[in-house]
Amino acid sequence: MKITLAGQGWSFDAEAPDTVLQAAERAGVILPSSCRNGTCRTCICQSTSGTVRYKIDWPGLSPDEKREGYILPCVAIATSDLVIEAPAARLR
Ligand code: FES
User: Fold this and answer.
1) CB atoms closer than 10 angstroms to residue 59
2) Pocket of ligand 1 contains residue 38 by CB under 6 Å
3) 34 Cα nearest atom in ligand 1
């Protein structure tokens, strides 16, 4: 799957079982993170296209947030190509 950062125009590959966060790091892209288990929401970002599944049952997102495309990259595994908005992302 190809993950694209909308603002920066950077992209990288992400394949299960890597999460979006892990795949980004492997590619040298640092996304905000803290707990890395889907509870603190430090990593929350909006995806404007694409789909994910979660490696935990209850990621800390409300149904409204999910509908609006918010994802938690630390526990999200891309199930399609994905475009995300992550203005705080930086390169390693
Ligand atoms: S880093 Fe805490 S929810 Fe993703």
Assistant:
1) 22
2) yes
3) 1
Spatial strand order in the sheet of 11-13:
11-13, 2-5, 82-85, 45-49, 70-71
Residue among 35, 65, 77 whose CB has most ligand 1 atoms within 8 A, to mutate: 35
CA of 72 to the centre of ligand 1 (A): 6
Q: Which domain holds residue 34?
A: 2-91
Q: Is 40 in the pocket of ligand 1 (CB under 6 A)?
A: yes
Mean pLDDT throughout 28-52? Answer: 98
* Domains contained in the chain, number: 1
| CATH code of the domain covering residue 20 | 3.10.20.30
Confidence grade of residue 12 (pLDDT, cut at 50, 70, 90): very high
Which one, of 89, 62, 63, 75, lies nearest residue 16 by Cα? 75
